[in-house]
Amino acid sequence: MKKRVLCAVLSAAMILSMGAIPAMAEGENVINVMLYTNVMSLDTNLATDGDSFEVIADCIDGLMQMDADGAAVNAIAEDVIVSNDGLTYTFKLRQDATWSNGDPVTANDFVFAWQRGAAENLEYGYMFSDIGQIVNAAEVAAGEVDRSELGVKAIDDYTLEVQLLVPVSYFLSLMYFPTFYPINQAFYEGLEEGTYGTGPDSFLSNGAFILSNYIPGSASLDLVKNENYYDADKVALDGIHYQVVGSSDNALTAFKKGELDVVMINGDQVAAAEDDAEISENLNVTGAGYMWYLTFSQTEKNANGALANKNLRLAISNAIDRELIVDEYVMDGSIATYTSVPPQFAASASTGEDFSADQDMFKYVCDYNEDAAAEYFAKACEELGQDSFTFTMIYGNNEGDEVSKVAQELEQEIETVLPDIDIVIQPMTKSERLDKMQNDNYEIALTRWGPDYADPMTYLGMWVTNNANNYGFWSSEEYDAIIADCTTGAYVSDYDARWAALYDAEKLVMEDAVIAPLYTKANANLIASGVEGIDFHPVALNRVYKTTTKG
User: Fold this and answer.
1) CA nearest neighbour of 118 among 451, 479, 468
2) Are residues 445 and 462 in the same domain?
3) Gap between the Cα atoms of 271 and 456, Å rounded
4) ∠ at Cα 503 (498, 505), nearest 5°?
5) Percent of residues, the chain, with pLDDT higher than 70
6) Which of 150, 188, 192, 510 has the smallest number of CB atoms closer than 10 Å to its CB?
7) Quick check: is 544 in a domain?
8) Is residue 537 one of the residues assigned to a domain?
9) What range defines the domain where residue 53 resides?
């Protein structure tokens, strides 16, 4: 993976030196926005983080997009026809949408992109199969059938038909997630292999903005308004300048100096902003959706398999004071979390109740409880025939400066409550952390996951046996059976029964301490006076600028 990224960077540099690049937007109608992490790829198959998804979504429309309230509304799709059995979706595409090279956006652009995504089956490949339940997606991913057998086809240039294995109640909400965005096949196939999405000349837009300046991993990138966008009349900004700022202190300083219009702060900087009369009114706290948690490698390859012991994982989880972490170290409105599905993003269609409104339901196995932690640890020592342990905990040092503080606090809390456990914290870049997790080259990792769509399955689907995001390699036949019933089996046509079964699945995750949930992230945003109309969402795309204005 690292080698591929390096090659992409070098290829991008060559491409940028060869062709014309859209002029960078300048003037008062350009907003300057902070990113926490470097954007490594704009390829929808390779992008894995919210910052990258945000930039991609600035530039590309899918079949649907999110309205201000987060609902799925038509974008490239002009009309959607769903069969009575819920198995066939027919999308009628608008005929005035074009790519930035002038080509029309057609049904084949979706067919090509989806077939590619399913066949390559990278981190988000499961969205086509496990989540989207598209016919033959699992078989395409496994290499058992050709990608042409995927249940998606172009009836004509402007009619896309999708066949599902079972009804999927949230299917339309998947359509605004970048995994399901289109790609111009002729353009893609005309590029040097591995260079798509690595620079302005290797990336096409059909959305509100066009990529103007970008090299993978660089500290800044620029977008300009797409004057040929079908909905250009709604786009008031001339452009967006993104700047990576890894420190909350630097973000606050840049905002005060007027260098950035939109920043995220945390920790002491939030209190400083609240106490500053000049900028306190610019502070806006929004739900970010992301849940931070600890994941444990349960394979023999790491820590001699010690973390496969449930009682050891439970001991660690019960040694963590989550309230202290959010109150003293994160300090941006984030909330301590005691469930494996975080609160405030998935509501029941029947009752409207938040799936994770009850944060006490699993505290009997997930709470700050020193006595329980000691009891679990004693059981683990007896079962493992070992009375002391040393574990390395990895975390990203470029994911916000509060992450380093949280890692250090976790080290101290665990070692204090469980003195026979030694935690060695190991900082690295986010991309290195992901690489180690994906290749099972870690023991404990401080990581996060953001909801891709508004259903508990966006979390619970991760812990199915052999799921690409099951970084702990946990496996339970009982769990897999429940999830199967919720996706393809007994509960797919009974919404309330499915909802109840998802709690049964979560109970297994929590009682086995598959993860140790920590907190659900909030974003403490500073937004410059005059900047209005940024849509903030806890699901899929945290920030959308299509209707943003700068007065």
Assistant:
1) 468
2) yes
3) 33
4) 90
5) 96
6) 192
7) no
8) no
9) 1-59+189-244
Indicate whether 25 and 134 sit together in one domain: no
Per-residue pLDDT of 414-468, as tens digits, reads: 999 999 999 999 999 998 999 999 999 999 999 999 998 999 999 999 999 998 8
Note the pTM of the prediction, 2 decimals: 0.85
One-letter amino acid of 379: K
Within a 13 Å sphere around the CA of 348, how many CA atoms are in the beta-carbon half? 17
pLDDT of residue 481 exceeding 90:
yes
Contacts of 198 (CB under 8 A, 6+ apart): 8, 9, 11, 12, 15, 41, 42, 43, 214, 215, 216
- Interatomic CA distance for residues 226 and 161, integer angstroms: 28
Residues 300 and 447 in one domain: yes
Q: Is 90 a residue whose pLDDT tops 90?
A: yes
User: How many structural domains are present in the chain?
Assistant: 3
The answer to whether the beta carbons of residues 180 and 114 sit under 8 Å apart is yes
CA distance linking residue 297 with residue 302, whole number of Å: 7
Residue 507 amino acid letter: K
Amino acid identity, position 182: P
pLDDT of residue 478 exceeding 90, the answer is yes
Token reading at 157: 């240039």
478 plus 496 within the same structural domain: yes
Hey, what's the torsion of the CAs at 74, 75, 76, 81, to 10 degrees?
Answer: -10
pLDDT digits (tens, 9 = 90+) for 352-377: 999 999 999 999 999 999 999 999 99
